[in-house]
Amino acid sequence: MTTTTSVMRAEIGEQPAALRDTLDALLPLAPEIEALGRETRQVLFIARGSSDNAAVYGSYLLQAHSGRLATLASPSIATTYGARIDLSGVLAVAISQSGRTEEIVDTMAWAADCGARTVGVTNGDGSPLAEAADLALVTRAGNEVAVPATKTYTTQLAALAVLALGLGAGLDHGELAAVPDAIDDALDRPADALDAIVERLVGVEGAVVSGRGMAFSTALEAALKLKEACYLHAMGLSYADLLHGPIAVVDSATPAILIAANSGPTLPGTVALAERVVSAGAPAYGIGGGSALAGACDLAVPAPDVPEWLAPISLIVPAQLITERLARSLGYNPDAPRGLGKVTQTG
């Protein structure tokens, strides 16, 4: 394992502070979120890339805890097809780290023109997205230099947790406020399990990353990080989709990385999946899931013990650390993956 430091690793370590600053800035906006909630019935998320993975979390969170239908938009319906849809009663939530991705800004404007109220979730204070939205939830991640999103992603998740609270989710504000300290504690733990998983991932060409429910968003984001920084053929799949056929790709050369909160309704199924993977002769590596998932996997990294509704904010941190370590072990620079920039424009 190389000991060279990276900007990505430094920014991973900045996440607790970024989360505290973001929560301090956004929790006071709850009354404004509530006002928008009174005018709307359902939520439409508009995003791409890591922000789209954050939107998956937001969709599960709102539907499970606020009683609102939440769906993911297809921006090309607006930008390519130019279709008109009745979006009255819809709260369109556009998510962009920079706030400058034209497709996302244009799709939010289209949603407003179709009758939606709008919220912009961005780290770009004063960005086109923030300026155009009815309400801007501006995260406080600070400048992010490494191309793979770390602190901008977790602060997006925190913003969506605040959004859920404002839209009527009967959840504990204090549990959300405790997440930064839990991540701080996790970053201080010995890295033996992380390093052991990284050593086993060196040399593999592909991996399946799976989670269910709230953790599905983390599986998608973890797979994206492994593709971006390590050039690994990583597939992010839900537990259910994996069982519907693609599980055949998991074998001795294609490990499964299984992600779960330490408690909650999806944990037993994730443990059962780990047992099935191992019984088929394939490696299974766990992130989170407490002692139950650890006992079913070959290796596992513990995650902070936070409630399931907040687990994605903390579960992604071990995946980020694995990605950063694996990239360096493979001789890649995790800060500047080939072919990628901080702002991606899509036509």
From TrEMBL:
InterPro entries referenced in this protein's UniProt entry, alphabetically: GlmS/AgaS_SIS, GlmS/FrlB_SIS, SIS_dom, SIS_dom_sf
Organism expressing this protein natively: Nocardiopsis mangrovi
EC number, UniProt record: 3.5.-.-
Molecular function as annotated in GO: hydrolase activity
The UniProt record lists the keyword Repeat: yes
Signal peptide location: none
Location of the SIS domain: 32-173, 197-337
Keywords assigned: Hydrolase, Repeat
Protein name: SIS domain-containing protein
